[in-house]
């Protein structure tokens, strides 16, 4: 009986990470990713309104006036969406690795 208690204590002390800290990091990555997506969405609304204003008040060179706005939109939206996906992957990856480690440790 005492051997099983000692072996379970050894297993708990043998962890290479602190589960609560890893969960906190995963939660922060998840929250930060959603904040990034909201900010990117606000920029999208701003750029759509800027494009609308450019189209309605355009002169004969519509394409030349739209290019800087579209380039700025893509330079902010594409990295923002990429950052959202990466942070979500980090968050889910941490949870997945912790589950794998927990299932392997039980056997």
List keywords for this structure.
mainly alpha; 89% helix; rod-shaped
In round numbers, the mean pLDDT is 84
Count of alpha/pi helices:
3
Order of helices and strands: HHH
The shape is rod-shaped
Which assembly state applies to the chains in this document? single chain
Question: For the report, how would you describe the main beta sheet?
Answer: none
CA(first)-CA(last) distance: 19 Å
Helix content: over 70%
Q: Let me know the number of strands.
A: 0
Low-confidence stretches: none
How many distinct domains?
1
Structural class based on helices, strands and sheet pairing: mainly alpha
Radius of gyration: 24 Å
What would your notes on this structure say?
There is one protein chain. The protein is mainly alpha-helical. The radius of gyration is 24 Å and the shape is rod-shaped. It has helices at residues 2-13, 19-56, 62-106. The model has no long low-confidence stretch (mean pLDDT 84).
Write the SSE topology.
Layout: H1 2-13, H2 19-56, H3 62-106
Concise structural overview:
The chain has helices spanning 2-13, 19-56, 62-106. With 107 residues, the protein is mainly alpha-helical. It has one domain.
């Amino acid at each position: 009986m005492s051997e099983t208690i000692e072996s379970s204590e050894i297993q708990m002390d043998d962890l290479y990470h602190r589960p609560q800290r890893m969960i906190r990091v995963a939660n922060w990555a998840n929250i930060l990713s959603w904040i990034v997506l909201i900010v990117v969405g606000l920029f999208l609304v701003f750029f759509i309104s800027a494009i609308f204003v450019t189209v309605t008040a355009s002169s004969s060179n519509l394409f030349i006036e739209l290019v800087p706005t579209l380039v700025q939109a893509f330079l902010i939206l594409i990295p923002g969406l990429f950052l959202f996906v990466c942070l979500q992957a980090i968050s889910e990856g941490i949870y997945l690795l912790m589950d794998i480690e927990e299932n392997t440790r039980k056997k």
